[in-house]
UniProtKB/TrEMBL annotation:
This is Helix-turn-helix domain-containing protein. Residues 191-289 form the HTH araC/xylS-type domain. Gene3D superfamilies: Homeodomain-like (1.10.10.60), Jelly Rolls (2.60.120.10). InterPro entries: Cupin_HpaA-like_N, Homeodomain-like_sf, HTH_AraC, RmlC-like_jellyroll, RmlC_Cupin_sf, Tscrpt_reg_AraC-type_HTH. Keywords: DNA-binding, Transcription, Transcription regulation. It comes from Salinicola corii. PROSITE patterns: HTH_ARAC_FAMILY_2. GO terms for molecular function: DNA-binding transcription factor activity; sequence-specific DNA binding.
Amino acid sequence: MPIPTYQLYGETRHWPTPDLLHCETIAERSRLHAWHIRPHRHADLMHLLLLREGEVALRLGEMEAALDAPATICVPATVVHGFRFSPQTQGHIVTLARPLVEHLRERLPQAEVLDDAAHYPLAEQAESMPLAQLVDALDAEYRRTPAGGHDGREAMLQALIEAVTLQLWRRARRRRRFPRTGHDRGEQHLDRYQTLIETRFTRQPAIPELAAELGISDAHLNDLCRRLTGHSALQLLHARLLLEAKRQLTYTQQSIAQVSERLGFSEPTYFTRFFKRGTGMTPKAFRQRGSD
């Protein structure tokens, strides 16, 4: 059976939030699937799991393991993973979008820990408490409705995920590392393409231009994007534009014309058409919904 590529598990369209992370309990999604999350992967998202109570049979790339709580699991983008949790397992899954992972890499040398597909037991309460407290705070902040989107919520989420990353690194440096396997040439091209998107998307570059910079044809780039993500190269570029549009409309007070210009659209009307095609609503309606 082919391995499906999702946004969050079971979701194939756009990243469902203007935030660069998503936080939910293990039970919220797993209970809906009889505690069995079948093998899948994400093109540009990664997971950090904190298992507090229960057990999980884990597939992580080519590795299989049975884990008892407390433990943490790190799942980088494109790594195939699946979980079979014991019923009533407690814990959290924090999902990070690629722009946030890139930000963490720039800010923290210790963020290299996010590149390893690994699991780390938390054998003592003293080891699990700091992570658990930080993830609890992250979950509470994530679920809190911002006051108009300008009350520091995003900055708080950034600070908390940086602290979670540092705590994970402290734990990981005392354990054997599990470097990624199966990172074939196609995945390397995809990784480089996504890096180019992150640095160029506001210029709305042509796909043949980006493919030439990777040293491959645009047809080859489209083929590998569809094989590894289920989307074309242009759709991946548009998804990043749409995410940034949602973020600007949610977290800034710029006018729609200013957001349009910042994202490389020659006219606000073109931006409105693009945004409505991707979300089903106009930028104005999206912003008003967030302030209701």
